[in-house]
Amino acid sequence: MAQQAVGITGFGGYVPRLRLQRKAVAQANAWIAPNFLGKGKGERSMANWDEDAITMAVEAGRDLLGAGDDRSHVDALYFGSTSMPFKDRLNSGIIAAALTLDENVRAVDVASTQRADTSALMQALAAVKGGEARNAVVLAADRRKTKAVTSQELDFGDGAAAVMVGAENVIATYLGGASLTIDFVDHFKGDTEEFDYNWEERWIRDEGFAKIVPRAVKAALEKSGVSAGDIKHFVLPCIFGDKFAQQLAKRSGIAPEVARDTLALNCGETGAAHALVMLVHTLQKEAKPGDKVLVLHFGGGCDALVFEVTDKIASQAGKRGIVGSLAARVEETNYMKFLTFNGLVEWEKGMRAEQDKKTALTTLYRNEDMLMGLVGGRCKETGVVQFPRSRISVNPNNHTVDTQEPYKFADRKAKILSWSADFLSFSMNPPNHYGMVVFDEGGRIMMDFTDVETGTVDSGMEVKLVFRIKEFDDKRGFRRYFWKAVPIAASAAKSQTGQAAE
Amino acid sequence: MAAGIKDKVAILGMGCSKFGERWDAGPEELMVEAYLEAMQDAGIEPTQLDAAWFSTHIDEIGTGKGGTPLSVALRLPNIAVTRVENFCASGSEALRGAVYAVASGAADIALAVGVEKLKDTGYGGLPVGNMGTLNPQWSPSGSAPGNFAQLASAYRAKHGVNKDDLKRAIAHVSVKSHANGAKNPKAHLRNPVTEEQVMGAPMIAEPLGLFDCCGVSDGAAAAIVTTPEIAKAMGKSNIVTVKAMQLSVSNGLESQHNSWDGSYFHTARIAAKKAYKEAGIDNPREEVSMMEVHDCFSITELVTMEDLFISPEGGAVKDVMDGFYDADGKVPCQIDGGLKCFGHPIGASGLRMAYEMYLQLQGRAGERQLANPKIGLTHNLGGAPSQNVCSVTIIGAHGA
Predict the structure, then answer these.
(1) Chain A / chain B CB contacts < 8 angstroms
(2) Which residues in chain A have Cβ-Cβ distances shorter than 8 Å to B157?
(3) Percent composition of chain A: helix, strand, coil (DSSP 3-state, to 5)
(4) What ipTM does this complex have?
């Protein structure tokens, strides 16, 4: 019997909506670094203050998985990133909780290299091939912190991508791949360091990429039995420009014009997520059934994977992915805001920000599905839905006892009942918006808003829910996560007549 | 239904410190200031006190927990002191404890003192509170104005009031309180303001500007209660008695069940209905002479007018703009300046409201004295619109 084809069965993507205009950065820094004026083209994605690799990965994962309640089919989760918020706490475990995956999922963090995304993908493929997993989610995200006034600040972006690996309904069959492991140190970040230390770009380009990538390509083509001329999509993250990527493709015998968009102009390089970000972008935009795709990611050597797109690719139409994320953009020209969101400015937060944000880990664990998964309760007798779940139901007509089953809120439709824009309480992005969010199918939660356009919020507006950082505990290096409501600007017109909830 | 509290307890004496930014005084001095006035008014000795109730809300910058801070500051004769705390309605809780003790016969004379020393935080507004270990992990880290401001968005949506009209109506609420507070020597804020000033003030929490928010003040207030019989025996005339004391506490309905529309106080309506029944009031719009309500924010006062069934539902904007609640209106509200201008030292506020109603009923309110009031209502609220405790107390002339 022929071995079952294993490959990618679905994808998702997430790029934060803010796009920092490089011109604004270059101009602000021109007095000290006039050399960057030439790099002042296009825009880079910019995470909100309450986003990190985990929250972005969760968003990509939600896009991948869709809104369904049942996620029991997922039995493995691989998370690749070089900006994981925790050095010792399973980052993929936080993601699994937010995605309300079953407890028997195998969750693995893959870190320490820019090719963490492709390495995670390779592990998932191996697990499914070997029968250890049936449906493995691969997530990759990075929010790389750079010093101000660096070329990296201009080149990088924030973002995440997701793919599912399985053997059923495969949209891109895995034909084979190879990894080269070479301790070529183009940059590094020591254990105690906040920022990367970078070596000369020309050396990285000419001695690193130009020599190592073609070797990986050759090995992967051999393994997969695909000839260079058959490659229709050459996916290689690099910051040396599209021309350089085309040259590398050509050097490997691949048509230069199939070197795919590095998204340098409209996104920036999303670090350890970028190979998957580019892959998802390619699958959405250009890939056709039968196309062979070569995915590469450089870092401590190079990973190379070859896929063949199937006609099942049509099943992914309608996903936000990377294409949809890139389209949902808000221009940001305030470089100071970027610096502040990234902790690069010591600013006066006021005494209100002094409040201790210590998290009781006991409480967190006791209420894990509520806090991480936004799971409330639904009364089995009356059908009344509520948040949080409680032993005695809130239903005013029938306070039933011990009748509630878990009920997931994160993907339900909801609207704003009441709100305010608060200038008094501390916020990383004032005014602090929050309000009562009422769900169409029952239940309500008083919650923080995020990604808000000040001045557009009103009662009746629709919201979507996102998993975000709730608070930083700088004293202990901890951070809390919870869900927030994002007002959907397009729904503002509909709400103007103003309808109260029933 | 229980027989209720009506006319079982009389107010023997009351006192209130000057409210404001009392850089000169700690909580102990503020308590003494209110206590000495109340004792002089009552004309009794400390040894005549049987028990005391002590309200204060914020431990971290206040007096500390337990009953000892009151007992030590006032050098009470080792009597029972119970500390009570129910958010911003704490002062009414102290009074309720003392009143219930007398009504039960367990005490002949009981003392209630409330205090808050808010101006030791180093910043404006109320201190950032600690809500335990679970709440901070999901509830918005907002502020009081941000929570109460939400009434405005929900009220606008429900009643189809446009932004500008509601903004002007709540501005009028504050203008009226400033006019009243200017006549009160113990008030924190004593400057009259115009609607234009209020509407042009810096935004605190949309749509509440600076003048839509009450004063954050230091202060203390005290009450001494006994039975009408003892008061008479002590030679008191013009006796003021308690007609009703009701407290309603949210059970999570507003914050968790979609039957609440966010534009009113569910608890206030329950407490008001019960209080009117206890006091024997059938038509509050006609029978209540005056009110001190919990005007922590102008929008709170506006919607409360409907919750207390003084204004018809959806009719508060019109009543406010018609001057119905002004000093010369049908039911003067916040005649002492209210939380807005008298100030809001949390643990003292409920007692401060009763203090003004008591002075008015005894004809001792000086420049702001109303003509012949018979029934005074206090409404003291703690928490946020979506989850709160609400106290409604009615006092009046004995026999009224």
Answers:
(1) 160
(2) 417, 458-460, 498-500
(3) 30, 30, 40
(4) 0.95
